Amino acid sequence: MLSLRRFELLDQLSGTSESSEINAYLAAVADTLDVTNTVLASAGKLKLFCGNPPLDVPLMRGLLRERIAFLAKLGQDTEAIKARSGIVIVILQALREKYACR
Known about the structure:
By secondary structure, the protein is mainly α.
């Protein structure tokens, strides 16, 4: 599992050239979420998130960077939170917040 803290460190180290390993991981997360939502919808179940967000690497990176910025604004010791938070859960939570099913 890739933690939010590890993503943050790798993202900072890669600078402007984004890490191909993280890009591959994020692309796989995006594909998995897309397939899962499609399967749930076709089975008549409640989807994980609604709308049709562009499930791609730039969106995934943006969601993770937003969460890191949010945690930084808290001003508390957030390193432990970031170390325990897997990026898949962070992405899913962000998608559910931004693209809530009403």
